[in-house]
User: Fold this.
Amino acid sequence: MAKKLWSGRFQKDTDPMTDDFHSSISFDFRLCRYDVGGSIAHAMMLGKQGIITGEEAEIIVGGLEGILKDLEDGKIAFSPEAEDIHMNIEQELIKRIGETGQKLHTARSRNDQVALDIRMFLKDEIESVIQLIKKLQGCLLELAEKHVETVMPGYTHLQRAQPITLAHHLLAYVEMFQRDAERLRDCYKRTDILPLGAGALAGTTLPIDPDYVAGILGFSKVAENSLDAVGSRDFAVEFNSAAALIMVNLSRFCEELILWSSAEFDFVELDDSYSTGSSMMPQKKNPDVAELIRGKTGRTFGNLFALLTILKGLPLAYNKDLQEDKEAIFDSVDTVKNCLSIFCPLVSTMKIKSDRMRSAANGGYVNATDLADYLAVKGIPFRKAHILAGQIVYYCIKNQKSLEDLTLAQLKEFSELIEEDVFQFIKIERCVDDRRKLGGPAPDSIRQAISKLKINLAKS
Assistant:
């Protein structure tokens, strides 16, 4: 069994069970590109500062570049005995270039090394997730443009409330996803901090140049406290929190698609490509993609809570508990990216049943608020107008009528102030068209909102 690179003070080999329990290579192999990249920058800095010779730095960089190419080509097998991605790469480097490879780890620790790798990984993934959000927003805006005048019921408490348009409904999610992207951009700022140079916890006495390394690796700033640099993962918690909120928004949308695709609503039909059938019931068409996204939301909640739990009792600085951060980070990244990727074609290909949506808007007395507003305009105090409108609705329910079915004479029994113009006032399309204020469902307002959102999306 090969000696561990840290085995100097030990008189016995670790038990094979300890090696298996301790090893993280089964999941942190995903950091290989970042680990090699960080090591190359570190070696260049060591050579520039004269901590190692320029020739040694070139040899190390050349060896690392060869390792990276072979890693990308799948020519290197990782060893659990080498514990993690960092030790695997270092051992491979020493095997290739000899004793010079042992100088790479000068002035650094695995503690600041792994913190660097995770930050580099998350920076890239944050950018990827933001791009997927933008793509989804584009899909929703495209769909909204087609349904600016598609009237449907808006709901509160899952009860029909007031008439809106499908475009108005879709733009609500565009706004929600916009905030998701903004949270990620904000998280990026706190992830974009170079921890390398912090060492194990107290920095190094050697004349390193972290600013030089930050420039090579594209970090905007260097960590200002070495304990914090290696002992904190709040940036990872922040990412997982943002990821959980993205999934919340996707899950809410999926819940609506599941409801809307049911026979009870029948507002949409999901494309066959994004649906499945039943092994027993031949008539079934199940919204499994939407259901899976809704279900996978729980994974990101669990990952967030796992990270919070790992950190809550940790004394500074590094503790082995922090090895458990990576699987939670990786899983949230994968889950969010997969769900965002499939959700866009899911909504883009579904059939919108506009007539059914419009028909549903006729029921539920969704224009009752407008009737109350009409009475208020006639001079009746709103609280009294509200009661009168409610009494009229109750009369309609008892007599199985809609508000539009009532005659003027019947309406005047509730108030002599009601005139013939009431019928125009409570017409469903007018109920929508009259709501032209910012954020309202009127088609003109929605067209302006879509235009503004498209411009903002192009700039972001």
